[in-house]
Amino acid sequence: MHIVTISEMRELEAQAESRYGLTSPILMQNAGKSAADLFEAHLLPTYSLKGLKVLFLIGPGNNGGDGLVMAEHLEHAGVLISLYYWKDKKLVVAGEQQQGPDIHEALKTQIHNADYVIDALLGTGRSRPMPEDMRDLLALVKTEREQRDDLNVVAIDLPSGLNADTGEVDPGSIAANTTITLAYPKLGFFFFPGRDYIGDLAVGDIGLPDDLQPSSKTEMITGQQVHKLLPERPLNSNKGTFGKVMLLCGSLPYPGSAFLAGSSAARVGAGLVTLAVTEKMLPFYASSFHEATFAILPEEDAESFDRANALIEKLAGYKALLVGPGLGQSANTREVILQVLEHLRSLPDKERPRLVIDADGLNNLSALERWWTLLPKDTVITPHPGEMGRLSAGIKVSGGNIERLELARTKAREWQVNLVLKGSCTILANPEGKIRINWWGNPALATAGTGDVLAGMISGFLAQGMPSFDAATAAVYLHTAAADLVNEYMNIERAGLLASDLLPYIPMTLVNTEFSEL
Ligand SMILES: NC(=O)C1=CN([C@@H]2O[C@H](COP(=O)(O)OP(=O)(O)OC[C@H]3O[C@@H](n4cnc5c(N)ncnc54)[C@H](O)[C@@H]3O)[C@@H](O)[C@H]2O)[C@@H](O)CC1
Ligand SMILES: [K+]
């Protein structure tokens, strides 16, 4: 699904009118109707609309207009509606305009009684800091919600005061429990602090024709998209059909990485997983990972040439190679990596295993001048912000702010790689400037070993012949989906997940994608 900036959204609306006669009032009718439908479908699976008390905060522009249309639809469905028009300071309760000197007190009563407050004050037309009286109005809602958690705020299009391009927020903005955005998610939703203000995201349909597409090269990854990317699993198949993946991972003191990454490759469906390990390490893996096969390498103090060659000799017929997790950063190991890269570059396209480099693979590379010139075509790299900083000559890389986007786009082009810049909303960028962003994040994933799982999943998809950018896309999405399943089935919330907990849930995510809307 496209992600749009404010100007891209305006351009779409202008085209809708000039090419299809879809004027602003028509789009607004569609927007308000769709918001009402989503409100009913997504937000109230267990409640009836009848008798529900909903207060609408109506702003001066089209965002307020959307709110009014939505209110009208909900009123027909039996919702008890009150409307507060911010600009005129007018309060209408059940169709009656409230009179008298103290509208403010009457408004407070409405907030106190409401089940839902709909924030339809400002949308993409926000052009300046919020006036104090709008901040005060939202502060009343915020205070009330702090006192009772059965008050929900639903933002129309976006939480008022949020900058839809950057994710910056006004001091008066309040976080929504749910945001019903119109037509497409806005870029600012994917960056902090904005990300924290969106709550659950739903995307409303404003009736734009299918062939009117945004020019944006930025996409939000969705379950349905991933479902279409996943490899076929024909009945007439054997383990050879689904490809072999080799892992150059794990060393003392990080043996677990190879197990986690290798298991993850198998869990996304790779036909065969081979761990390239030393004889000393073999007993550890052989006892914990029964399904793996092994390529035995000379010990780590052997000549780098011999270590690299032992791997290269075994590599024929492999479709994917993962280098890095737990590998260590000795000069000898760096030499091994360089020789393996040289070998990969020398192979014809068809015979070359697709490469994923993660963790120590990246740390080893970042010590070298113009390291990216050493990579074979179609490589995927998966840095977290710290690794990204080292790869980019020591700059500081944000974990969630908007600057990440341009950095990812520029560097993927410059380095000619498929870049997975990890973070709360992981960003993927390819050499052609295409961007895909993962909406889902899960703080439980902030624990050791989950990166190994992600890198393993990518290599498992590569083994099955998926193009590099798509393999990374599917893995990033399903990795957070697996974490959500762990939370659900293990009954945990934001902490306590072990990376290995993800493993049994990965296959379930492959099935679920078809049915997830976002
Ligand atoms: N234009 C269209 O075709 C459509 C617009 N849609 C809705 O319209 C919204 C955009 O509408 P508008 O462009 O009218 O913009 P908004 O409704 O976001 O706000 C613009 C109005 O608010 C005022 N304003 C701007 N910043 C302010 C601030 N900080 N404090 C107080 N007032 C401020 C402006 O003077 C203007 O009157 C979208 O977010 C969406 O909700 C949808 O109805 C779909 C179709
Ligand atoms: K709004």
TrEMBL record:
Record-listed (6S)-NADPHX binding positions: 62-66, 123-129, 157, 326, 384, 452
Residue span, YjeF N-terminal domain: 9-214
Keyword Lyase: yes
This protein's UniProt keywords: ATP-binding, Isomerase, Lyase, Metal-binding, Multifunctional enzyme, NAD, NADP, Nucleotide-binding, Potassium
Catalytic activity: (6R)-NADPHX = (6S)-NADPHX; (6S)-NADPHX + ADP = AMP + phosphate + NADPH + H(+); (6S)-NADHX + ADP = AMP + phosphate + NADH + H(+); (6R)-NADHX = (6S)-NADHX
Positions bound to AMP: K422, G423, S424, C425, T426, G451
Residues noted as binding K(+) in the record, renumbered to the chain: N63, D119, S160
BP term (GO), one: metabolite repair
Cofactor, how bound (note): Binds 1 potassium ion per subunit.
Residue stretches spanning the membrane: none
This protein's record includes keyword Metal-binding: yes
Residue intervals of the YjeF C-terminal domain: 222-513
EC number: 4.2.1.136, 5.1.99.6
Names of the cofactor(s): Mg(2+); K(+)
Pfam families tied to this protein: Carb_kinase, YjeF_N
GO molecular function terms attached to this record: ADP-dependent NAD(P)H-hydrate dehydratase activity; ATP binding; metal ion binding; NAD(P)HX epimerase activity
PROSITE patterns xrefs: YJEF_C_2, YJEF_C_3, YJEF_N
Subunit structure: Homotetramer.
Family as reported in the entry's similarity comment: In the N-terminal section; belongs to the NnrE/AIBP family.
Function: Catalyzes the epimerization of the S- and R-forms of NAD(P)HX, a damaged form of NAD(P)H that is a result of enzymatic or heat-dependent hydration. This is a prerequisite for the S-specific NAD(P)H-hydrate dehydratase to allow the repair of both epimers of NAD(P)HX.
HAMAP family, sorted: NADHX_dehydratase, NADHX_epimerase
NCBIfam families: yjeF_cterm, yjeF_nterm
Protein name: Bifunctional NAD(P)H-hydrate repair enzyme
Source organism per UniProt: Dictyobacter alpinus
Gene: nnrE
